Structures are given as C-alpha cells and as structure tokens.
C-alpha cells in the first residue's frame, strides 16, 4: 500500500547547478573576428552615406571634394587589404580549433577573399585612374570637357559599386558569424543528481 502511494507521487528532479564554464580562447577569437568585420563594414557605410555626401555638400569646390573623397577611399582600401589578411588568418584558426566546419570555413574564406579583392581592385585599378583624370583636368567637375567628365563619372560609379559590394559581403559575414555563447564553453565536472522523496 505504501509502495502504491509512492508511485502516485513521483519524485521531483532538483534543478541542476551551472555545469559549464566559458572557454575564453574561442570567445576572444570570435569576438576579434566579428569586431574587425564590423569596423570594416561600418567604415564603408559611414564613408558612402555620410562622409562623401558631406564633403560634396560642405566644400565649395567640387574638384577639392573629389580629391578629398578619393584620398579617403584609397586610405580605407589600403587598410581593408590588411584587415582581409587578418580575417583570413582568424578564419584558419577557427577551423583549426574546430569552431567552424569545413563548409563554413570555405564559405567564410570565399566571402573574405571577394571583399579583399574588391578593395584591392578599387585601390589599384579604379582610384588611380580617377586621380589621373583629376590631375590632367584640375577643373574637371566644373569645366566643359564632357568626355573626360563622363569617364570620371563611370569610374566613380564603378568605385561606389565596389564599396557597395563590400558592404553587402560584410553584412553577410556578420550574419553568418552570429553564434550563441554556449557554443564556446567547455563542460566542468558532472554534478550529482539528487531526487526529492527518495
């Protein structure tokens, strides 16, 4: 009879204590990777939507504004090349630490290489041609040479397209890099399971 009463009131499991602790190496690696990607992408967004329109709207001479924007873009492209190399290294470390699968590593590497290639192409191919046009025609944006102005506008659109391409890829990297913190914890000792009513 007493055994029947025990079955009618099953034992309750006491909530277990915290069983996992943070593993700081993968957390620091993931944080650094995400921080660099966010800074890279954020600087591109700020340059495209704030700095460039602000310079053209503030400076009276459009040619001076073009030179200033071109100088900032070339500086940012140079920094982006170094950031791309650093992010490729952190991606390799993530793979070696088993934080990324082979498929995720290949995807992330491909996106980073595309972003870096776009920055290098803008720095090596597009921006120097725009600078050469500004040197040969100091009053390019205020003059009457429509042919040269058309070439400059085409190069400008190409450069902004490369910047937009990097922004899209950077945003996708941020999206793909979002992880829950519990992925980067290591188990501690297993606690003893105690029951009420035993």
TrEMBL record:
Domain (TMEM205-like): residue spans on this chain: 35-134
Transmembrane segments: 35-58, 78-99, 111-135, 155-176
Chief location: membrane
Superkingdom of the organism of origin: Bacteria
Subcellular location: Membrane
Keyword field: Membrane, Transmembrane, Transmembrane helix
Cellular component terms per the entry's GO annotation: membrane
Cited InterPro entries: TMEM205-like
Pfam families the UniProt entry points to: DUF4149 (PF13664)
UniProt name for this protein: DUF4149 domain-containing protein
Source organism (scientific name): Eiseniibacteriota bacterium
Organism taxonomic ancestry: Bacteria, Candidatus Eiseniibacteriota
